[in-house]
């Protein structure tokens, strides 16, 4: 009975302490939810050189949003007027020159850059530097720079045929069977 009478005598203080503890817990969970939402809506742009799926010596410039949020107002900077085979300079490629207004999560853009057949030694001498600035959906700004080195393709080879080539061959065989 002493405990009950003590609780009755101090009920206001106990309720006040419990309320403060619950406010603290609620605030902590609100902070965690905010962090999770921010992380879930953060874009991350990656720029890389990749071999073409069907023809290994063709190098593609790949711009990809590997983050979980949309990237907006992408603007590219490069210090080189890279031009291979007398083609147009890198700064003259439409999306690199004018930027990209929106790149969704998982979305990527690939552009043929150069064929490295017979030119790899020359291309290795001058790595490509590309910078990108972009914003997310709440207008937070991001900036990244990418060092693209053609030396990574030295000794690059593939075992077997590419899957796209095998599909094309199988399609030709099916077409021959139908005629």
Please sum up the structure shown.
This protein is an alpha+beta fold. It has helices spanning 2-9, 11-40, 94-98, 120-125, 163-178, and strands at 45-51, 58-65, 71-78, 100-103, 108-115, 128-135, 141-148. The strands form two sheets. The chain has a four-stranded antiparallel β-sheet.
Explained architecture:
The protein is an alpha+beta fold. The protein folds into two domains: 2-40; 45-171, Immunoglobulin-like (Sandwich), CATH 2.60.40. The protein has helices spanning 2-9, 11-40, 94-98, 120-125, 163-178; strands at residues 45-51, 58-65, 71-78, 100-103, 108-115, 128-135, 141-148. The strands form two sheets. It has a four-stranded antiparallel beta sheet with strand order 4-3-6-7. It has a three-stranded antiparallel beta sheet with strand order 1-2-5, with no helix packed on it. The longest helix is centred in the N-terminal third of the chain and has 30 residues, at 11-40.
Strand proportion: 25-35%
Largest sheet: 4 strands, antiparallel
Shape: elongated
Distance between the termini: 99 Å
User: What helical percentage do the residues reach?
Assistant: 25-40%
Q: At CATH's second level, what is the architecture of the largest domain?
A: Sandwich
Structural class: alpha+beta
The total count of strands amounts to: 7
| Average of the residue pLDDT scores | 82
Strand order of the largest sheet: 4-3-6-7
How would you spell out the order of helices and strands? HHEEEHEEHEEH
Radius of gyration: 28 Å
CATH topology of the largest domain: Immunoglobulin-like
* The CATH class of the largest domain: Mainly Beta
Low-confidence stretches: none
Number of domains: 2
What is the number of helical segments per DSSP (H or I, 4+ residues)?
Answer: 5
